[in-house]
């Protein structure tokens, strides 16, 4: 499942972006060291090549209702007193757009750099006394292969801005709840909205874990019937996807720890919701670890079976060789070219020799069968 990816670098002389040859690399290592020798805060997109233009969706809501905003650039974005502003940017591969948001909302360059680096480790920071920042990974399973995209969030008391690496509908459920006024999402403010976004992402994590678990269960049933190279390759691939999912989920624990540590800044309803989401995430982490252990035991079992089969073949060949050792010894004696060997001149010598060899071979064969060695 190693992906072929197009790397982009910034040419400081021509002030333009260029493509480097495509390279194959592990997902979690694909952008390691990519921005070497580049000043911190330089906005360079590090990710898979995209063939769509970024889009901006905006929504303003309060307890009375929601208004969908028409936004073409950051100049169209205005916070509205008493309303929560939810901005969703789909596509982070245009540095100019990300830079506009940085200027409009005074986001620090290092945070914007993290938005454009799709290999960024999940984390949560407070950029200042009012601005929170989160980087997480949204995951999905297609054809038993794990696909992840980076999601970055900025929020203050009056707005939440989400940057997603790809075009996605993962927030449709949240928008539907806001439109219909279901639950407490209209009353909860930005912290509640951030928690709802994290909830949607954790649900994706649980869904991906469930699909990997189903694939592992099907594979286990097939392996019990017959072991083939293709099934073993599938087993290895599912284990690899599980490791990647675990590496995606584990760092998110620190995000929830930091958010839950801000109890004094969070109302009781939102805090209870956040704890529930954190519990779901812990369930996903524990499930991923358990699935990894199961897959590891399946691989160990297959290795043991291969060893047992190999030992059985070697045992069979050893027994056959053992049976033929005395027969070869007898044949070797009478195959020597001595002039005086009385048995060679005896009329029935050949038949007696064959009979002795047959009786000896059959006796040893019966002995090995009774000892359950054959």
Care to describe what's here?
The protein is 50% helix and 17% strand. With 374 residues, the protein is an alpha+beta fold. It folds into 2 domains: 3-304, Beta Polymerase, domain 2 (2-Layer Sandwich), CATH 3.30.460.20; 310-370, Up-down Bundle (Methane Monooxygenase Hydroxylase, Chain G, domain 1), CATH 1.20.58. A 7-stranded mixed beta sheet has the order 6-5-7-11-10-9-8, with helices on both faces. Helix 7 (268-333) packs antiparallel against helix 9 (349-370). It is elongated, with a radius of gyration of 34 Å.
What's this, in brief?
GO terms for molecular function: cobalt ion binding; cobalt ion transmembrane transporter activity; magnesium ion binding; magnesium ion transmembrane transporter activity. With 374 residues, this protein is α+β, with helices and mostly antiparallel strands.
Q: What structural class is derived from the secondary structure elements?
A: alpha+beta
Would you report the number of β strands? 11
CATH superfamily of the largest domain: CorA soluble domain-like
Distance between the termini: 44 Å
The low-pLDDT segments are: 1-25
Number of domains: 2
Strand order of the largest sheet: 6-5-7-11-10-9-8
Q: Which CATH first-tier class of the largest domain would you pick?
A: Alpha Beta
Q: Main β-sheet, in a few words?
A: 7 strands, mixed
CATH topology of the largest domain: Beta Polymerase, domain 2
Query: What is the N-to-C order of secondary-structure elements (H for helix, E for strand)?
Result: EEEEEEEHHEEEEHHHHHHH
Shape: elongated
How large is the count of helical segments?
9
Mean pLDDT: 83
The portion of residues forming beta strands comes to 15-25%
CATH architecture of the largest domain: 2-Layer Sandwich
Helical proportion?
A: 40-55%
Query: Which radius of gyration do the C-alpha atoms yield?
Result: 34 Å
Subcellular location: Cell membrane; Membrane
Catalytic activity: Mg(2+)(in) = Mg(2+)(out)
Main location: membrane
Membrane topology: Multi-pass membrane protein
